[in-house]
Amino acid sequence: MKSNGSGRIFFEGLRDGAPIGLGYFAVAFSLGIVARNAGLNPFQGLVASALNLASAGEYALFTSIQAGVTYVELALATLVVNARYFLMSCSLSQRFSPDTKFYHRFLIGFGLTDELFGIAIGREPPLNPRYSYGAFAVAIPLWAIGTALGIVAGTYLPVRIVSALSVSLYGMFIAIIIPPARKNRTIAVAVAVSFALSFACSRIPGVKSISASTRTIILTVLISAVLALVRPVDDSKKDAAEKTDAVVEE
Q1: CA-based, 20 to 30 A from 140: which of 32, 49, 68, 107?
Q2: Is the pLDDT of residue 93 over 70?
């Protein structure tokens, strides 16, 4: 890999990752409130966020800890919620030069998030790993620090304020799902069905006795599998759109 321009590429990643990091800080602060309710101290929250770079994944992690589930349930819930990163990592790895070393691919796969994937996949291939490292250098620390400070705030702020801050995380999830749901009817159906079945499972005798973490795992796998069979992605249309874009660019 050529070193020429590597410093410039790293700072480009740092520049593009800065606004993402600021957004992460705000979200992680709210997530820290949830972690505090689960009994984590600031250091534990810092480590958890540094090792699990996903808001939905960490929410599942912290709520599972609060519910006192088994380690197996905890691991499965986190794995299922974060499974999309396998696809993102595989997709991004195709944009690297064939001679890119394994440890670069491994580290970038570990640090990948939805937003960091978005800015990296938008660059012209072959991708230079230093761009992602630059984005990681600002986004990941702000994410982890935000969680730790959220736990500190949750410890010392009045109960009413802590309760209000806890609600903000649900607002973030709504902001994530509404835009794609408005554009794609399949996603909208998936969201509506998920809400309905999740509520029903929390009320149905026998089913409601199953831990929330296990219900999340079952519903996620079941709903995604059914929709994948009923409404699979039309790759032919996707390929045609990509070819059209390529012709326009030329």
Answers
A1: 68
A2: yes
